[in-house]
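User: Structure please.
Assistant: Input sequence and predicted structure:
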Amino acid sequence: MGNRHAITLAALVLTCLWGLGLAFLHLRGGIAALDRLEAPLADLRFVIQGPRPAPDDVVIVAIDDQTVREVGSYPLPRATMATLVSAIGRMKPKVVALDVLFIEAGSTEGDLALASALRETPSVLAAAGLFGRGPPATSSQNGNILTLPEAQDLLLPRATFSEAAALGVVNIATDASGVPRHIPLLLRSGDRIWPSFPLRAASIALKSDPVLQPNGIELGGMPSSTGDGYALPLRFYGPGGTVRTIGANHVLSGRIAEETMRDKIVVIGATVTGGGDTFPTPFDPVLPGVEVLATAIAHLVDGDALVRDNRVRFVDAAMAFTLPILFILLLSWHRSVLGFALIALVSALWIGLTVVAFAHGIWLSATLPLLAAVPPAILFGAARLWLDRSRADSLTIQSKTLRSFQPPSLTERLVKDPGFLAMPVRQKAAVVFIDLSGFTGVSEVLPLDETRELLRAFHRLVDQEVISHQGFVASFMGDGAMILFGLPDPSPDDACHAVEACIALSSHMESWIAELPEAIASRIGFKIGAHCGMVIASRLGGDSHQHIAAIGDTVNVASRLMEVAASHHADVALSDDLYRAAGNVRSVMELGVLEETLPASIRGRSGSIPVWLWRRTAQSNAVAERLR
């Protein structure tokens, strides 16, 4: 028990350290390997949640295959782009955001026309950051330390355009599988902090500058939760086209009603085959990059992004600490089957909670608490299994050892019923006593080792004969033994078995004595007394040790009958009660010399009882062999 508690305590300490370590790393920004495991589970939660309707205040104008066919070239000429922006501007949108990099010069007339169109309506142009492999940059903003992605360089639009419109960085952060997970709303390049394309577009649309908060950004009174580095988690609406998308050719041809664009955030981007960025998402293997950006803009304007800020991470960290401790405590419970069932239930409940929370826009980690809990639980379970197996082996050895001190029938009964004879039981039984005559004198002259071997041989013979006749040796008393028939359970044949055992013992005792050295055989003999009747069977002994015993007048009479056998030079003295109860072995008795019943006085007992005396004949040995 001490080892078991020590292993549990050690497991709890190590589990606490393991959980705290993972929680600390998670709060510091996450673990790359853990994020790789979390990503497919996040996708699965998107699929379980299913597509959601996109907000109607964001519209995509797509430069698609049909537009390119009608215009005749790709990229679209600057003049055509100017016409497209002007047409949209006349519909009075809140902002026109162009997910197009204008870093190369076009025709002079086209560039001037596009710059003029950009000045006529609130607009945002795309810039792109070039990133290295260095750590995130640390900047200071109003006394607060900001950890931001750092771009080594920026691809900016030509000055002609950047002077006419606001700029926003269009970089999208993806995981190892290429799925976009979040948009960095702020990044640093050199000594300047740049807003992202979605943040600049939403800010202009809401006519509000962003206000940085510890766990997010607020725009026009609408808070948006962000993660480390002001990364906005993406909550996809559905497959491509879920955000309302209109072909640019329809706008160029004037086939779009003004209400379609009025007071909307219009995002222009390429969806032409092979001409624009695409990303795999849980809903679509080729979601256009412009729709990813439009999704982020909708999050900022409507506040429906996923919440995975420091508060959510703290919940993850708390579960990473408590869940493994709970698993260890459940496994240490002695009712292990129920413990494993509760572990499975708790795991299922946590996974279910993450699914429900995800559907409500809260991204709890499904993997962190389970990663923190499962390895310690497996190791602890293996340690417990090893300990239990070692204890089982030890108990097996102990059981084999203890079986040597109790008869097999009694041992089996105690295993099945540990409370056997805790309360005394009055029942009928046959009692046999056997004793070596002259052993005390022999032991005075024999060496101790030879005396021990003589007793061992005597005990072995008695034990074999008694077991073969369905009795058990209640106790070996030096050079004698007390034998019971009727325990642990009485049988109608107990008396018969007792008589058969007496005959067999007599025969084999004679053979055994005959094989001893003459100096010993000439000095020892044996005597057997047997009786049957009511006994009180119970446990006797102290608190530290107990044994099964039978007491009562029947036991005393059986013991005194050995004296009757010795005084009449007989091998066995049977009470008349036992002889008559074992009537089906009378033919066997007759093979020996059986004297008629005679009254015999029992020492310490008033009156006399009828007794039968039995002596061996030449046929007795063969009979005993057949009865074994």
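Residues 137-145, 622-628 have pLDDT under 50 and may be disordered.
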